[in-house]
């Protein structure tokens, strides 16, 4: 069934101060025929990056407030906002992950559609430099200078914080100032995760935009509202050797975020069995 995509010719308020229109503008223009109108409201009041992954509900609420802010400022009935947090993986603390959210609001339909992904490809990291440590190995690891970094004295000092460092000369200068301000000459370095300083994040946001547009183009088979798509997965794919249920996805739960309709269906990739290497019985 091919339908005229909803929101063709529409204008959507995008609340961002970090250049996310570069990642999303074309995706929404090509996929929905809609235009994004930038709203650079200060959203710092809604909280910024923290070192831990908040519960999805909290992150979604922040994202919703951001989108509403842009809709109020522009007077548009459609809004879009994104939110991310980074930290250690809840089950594997050595592994950094990002949680990326993109949320769409349609006031006229009273509709809220959320797209999210756990992002394994992230450069999220931090390090503490002793007075004579070189930052070079760490900088290579986090993709400097295409990816920005933040520097401050190990013991925070008012007014001595350098964000968005993306060139060697600026970084050297910032490191020297931080060392002078810290009682022990130590410097705290961390990756700057704001989208405009972080091409890896920009790519994540773009991928999320593609997924959200695909979802908005799919009407719910029950109520017709845009936004039909994957909501959850069910583990239990059987081992090809012994049939034991594994942690791998057995089926997908698709649904409507508006009327609550749900449908369980088999994996889109058609896979019916798990490799014995991933079986808790064959390969404990
Ligand atoms: Zn098995
Ligand atoms: Zn529905």
Describe the model.
With 284 residues, this protein is an alpha+beta fold. The chain has three domains: 11-122 and 197-217, Rossmann fold (3-Layer(aba) Sandwich); 126-192, 2-Layer Sandwich (Dna Ligase, domain 1), CATH 3.30.1490; 223-284, no CATH class. It has helices spanning 21-32, 56-74, 136-141, 168-181, 199-216; strands at 11-15, 35-39, 78-88, 96-106, 111-119, 126-129, 149-153, 162-165, 187-191, 229-235, 249-255, 262-266. The strands form three sheets. The chain has a five-stranded mixed β-sheet, with helices on both faces. It has a four-stranded antiparallel β-sheet with strand order 6-9-7-8, covered by helices on one side. The longest helix is centred in the N-terminal third of the chain and has 19 residues, at 56-74. The chain is flat and about 65 Å long. One zinc ion is lined by residues 239, 241-242, 244, 276, 279, 281-282. One zinc ion is lined by residues 220, 222-223, 225, 256, 258-259, 261.
CATH homologous superfamily grouping of the largest domain: B12-dependent dehydatase associated subunit
Query: Strand order of the main beta sheet, please?
Result: 2-1-3-4-5
Number of domain modules: 3
The CATH topology assignment of the largest domain is: Rossmann fold
What is the helix tally? Answer: 5
Share of β-strand residues:
25-35%
Shape: flat
CATH architecture of the largest domain: 3-Layer(aba) Sandwich
* Bound ligands, named by name, code or SMILES: zinc ion
Report helical residue fraction: 10-25%
Question: Can you tell me the residue ranges where pLDDT is under 50 for at least 5 consecutive residues?
Answer: none
What's the number of extended β-strand segments?
12
- CATH class assignment of the largest domain: Alpha Beta
| Helix and strand element order | EHEHEEEEHEEHEHEEE
Distance between the termini: 46 Å
